[in-house]
Amino acid sequence: MTSPDATVAAAGRDGAGLPAWGGTQVCVAYGRTVALDGVTLSAPAGRVTAVVGGDGAGKSTLLRCLAGVLAPDSGTIRRPAKERTGYLPASSGIYPDLTVAENLDFRAKGYGMSRQDARERAAEYLDRAGLTPAAGRLAGQLSGGMRHKLAVIAAMLHQPELLVLDEPTTGVDPVSRSGLWWLITRAAAEGCAIVLATTYLGEAERCASVLVLDAGTALASGTPEEIVAAMPGSLRAAAVKPAGDAAARSWRRAGRWRIWDPGPGRPDPDDSAITPDLQDAVIIAAISRQQRAGGAA
Amino acid sequence: MWAMIVKEFRQVRRDRRTLAMMIVLPVLLLVVLGYAASFDVKSITVVASGPQARVAAANLASPFDVQRIASGQGRAWAQDQLRDGKAEMAVVTGGARPLVLIDGSQLFSARAALAALAGMQQRLAAHPSVIGAVVPQVAVVPQVMVLYNPGLTTSDIMIPGLCGVVLVFVGTIITSLGVVRERQSGTLEQLAVMPLRPRDVFLGKIVPYFLVAAVDLAIVLAVGIAIFGVPFRGSPAVFGLGALLFLFVTLGIGVLISSVSQNQGQAIQLAVMTLLPQVLLSGLIFPLTSIAAGVRWISYLLPLTYFNQISRGVMLRAEPIAALWQPFLFLALLGAVVVTGATLRFRRYLAPESRERGARKPAVQSQGAGA
What letter does residue B86 receive in the DSSP assignment? Predict the structure, then answer.
């Protein structure tokens, strides 16, 4: 086997001179299905970078490339050596028939941590995650939220430089989700570069930067504010679903219909202009892409 | 009910392996059981020694098949031939009466030999003048001795073979389950990103089952010896080496099976598919020589065939390792092939760089930096 370092390119530098992990022009195809088509992502240290998109958008594929599970067909991946990368697969990577403590112990030994280090850090992270009372329980018997927390602390136990989390909060109740976010932001504050996939745009709004994926291509990227600011056209809200071609540019949200106009807004007494948020911007990006594709066809 | 039936057929059609097992297995069983395997021994290999070896050999008609005639050799040589599995019966001449030695560890051949000898004696009693006139020296009732398994007990020859079946069971079924569990729980991907070498993962996965199988083997042996009174005449070291090689092969098969199975159910199906022909075709139940040549070549691809030869040879006949070089060699070859295949398959999961896709196009630009 080649050494893990052989696949590692030199880290890029962001403005602050900190190393930025990530990928440039990453392409992956599964047979004839193109999963990623020239996607670029930068994950600076100490920041949380979110990858958002619907099912099948390519989030997991991009994360698997970053974690080193999958080799891209073309493009460059910049990641630290295996020992200093952490990965939470969508399947959680936790052994259900081991206890919480045994799971962490296996992870610590696998990453070559000293016995002392392993014990201290496991105790610390268990405490952070509120899992200390559950240390002796089988991971398979934990509640969904607790298991997610265990999976996240197991992935960050060896204090990696790059932490790749595939949907760490999907299917988790709001209380556990805030607990998970506390763990994640704390790891970022300690200097870890974090890339996470999420389907919750509300979560992505809290991240330093966001990459919006759709069908394997990047719809938008930047800080949430940048993505919103880059939204073309204008947005308005209406009480009823619009007729005509506007129907394809409308969606229901918070009990009303939102309509996106590619051009400048039209004055209409029933409609009111709305300031879009990240969720609106992502939907608009997807609609505008669909329309461009339709226009080209 | 109709909806249920349609749904069930759709599911069965998707599950190709179950379908294959439902269709192929009965046919396979029929061919093997009805056509290939039989307890009938059509030929018994014989060596003859002593001054009248040639005459004795001339007297032995079918089913006896005289392989070697050594007039200059005595009883010790003849017995060694049986011990080393070169013949199933030996005729030693030179004494007052010819001595017939039969290898009792080849149960069915031994029974057939005894029956054939009895038939010869009956004919001799009926027409003493005819045969006596042709070869007067041998026209005496020979002394018959059954060696290694004088009582011709079935358990004596089954227990050594069953040791092998137990090892196949643990080695193949339990190992394949253990590895496929890793995939089913989604932890294989986690192992792939950890800084472990594929070899470490492979060995780490196999060694525990290896130890379990070794303990199992010791238990089966102890029970066989204590309860069934099976003799252990040969060298434990030779037996141990054979068991080690055999385990190596079966564990490798287990890993191979798990690497092509998506879940534990599939793994069990495949493992049973490898277990069944081993039990039927390895010489454990049906003597190898009775299996039709068209099917017998499969026997020689099965590791249990060779382990059977080793365990019966060592336990019952105290066969030395020099005489067992063939089964040892073939076990080693099978082991090399299987373990190489298993390691390669395993590596595919653990090292993305060696995937076919990655190998075709260098995927990641290496700038030689990093750690």
Answer: S
- Of B121, B147, B173, the residue that ends a domain is B147
Residues of B in contact with A40 (CB under 8 A): none
For B56, residues 6+ apart whose C-beta sits below 8 A from its C-beta are B48, B50, B91, B93, B98, B138
Is residue B249, in this structure, part of any structural domain at all?
A: yes
**Range 69-98 of A in CB contact (< 8 A) with B:** 69-77, 80-85, 87, 89-96
Mean pLDDT of B254-278: 84
Domain that holds residue B88: 44-147
Q: Does domain A9-94+146-222 have CATH number 3.40.47.10?
A: no
What is the rounded CA–CA span in Å between residue B300 and residue B295? Answer: 10
- Angstrom CA distances, B366 to A2, A242, A293, B133, stand at 12, 53, 36, 92
Residues B123 and B193 in one domain: no
Domain annotation covers residue B38 = no
Query: Maximum CA pair distance of chain B?
Result: 97
ipTM, two decimals: 0.79
Task: For residues B172 and B304, state if they share a domain.
Answer: yes
B139 and B230 both lie in a single domain: no
Which residues of chain B lie closer than 8 angstroms to A91, CB-CB?
A: 185-187, 189
- Residue-by-residue pLDDT tens, chain A, 297 positions: 333 333 334 444 444 455 589 999 999 998 888 899 999 999 999 999 999 988 888 999 999 999 988 889 999 999 999 899 999 998 888 999 999 999 999 999 999 999 999 999 999 999 988 899 999 999 999 998 899 999 999 999 999 999 999 999 887 888 888 888 999 999 999 999 999 999 888 889 989 999 999 889 998 899 999 999 888 888 888 888 888 888 888 999 888 889 888 876 565 656 688 888 888 888 888 888 888 877 654
**Number of domain units in chain B:** 2
Task: Please name the residues between 29 and 68 in chain A that touch chain B, using a CB distance below 8 Å.
Answer: 64, 67-68
Predicted TM-score of the model (pTM):
0.75
Kindly state whether A117 is in contact with chain B, defined as any CB-CB distance less than 8 angstroms: no
**Residues of chain A found within 8 Å of residue B348, distances taken between Cβ atoms:** none
Q: For A111, which of B194, B354, B368 is closest by C-beta distance?
A: B194
B142 and B240 in a single domain? The answer is no
Measured in angstroms, the CA of B363 and the nearest CA of chain A are apart by 5
- Break chain A into its structural domains and give their ranges: 9-94+146-222, 226-296
**Distance between CA atoms of A111 and B152, rounded to whole angstroms?**
58
Please tell me whether residues B113 and B166 are part of one structural domain. no
Q: For residue A72, with 0-12 CB atoms within 10 Å meaning exposed, 13-18 middle and 19 or more buried, which class applies?
A: buried
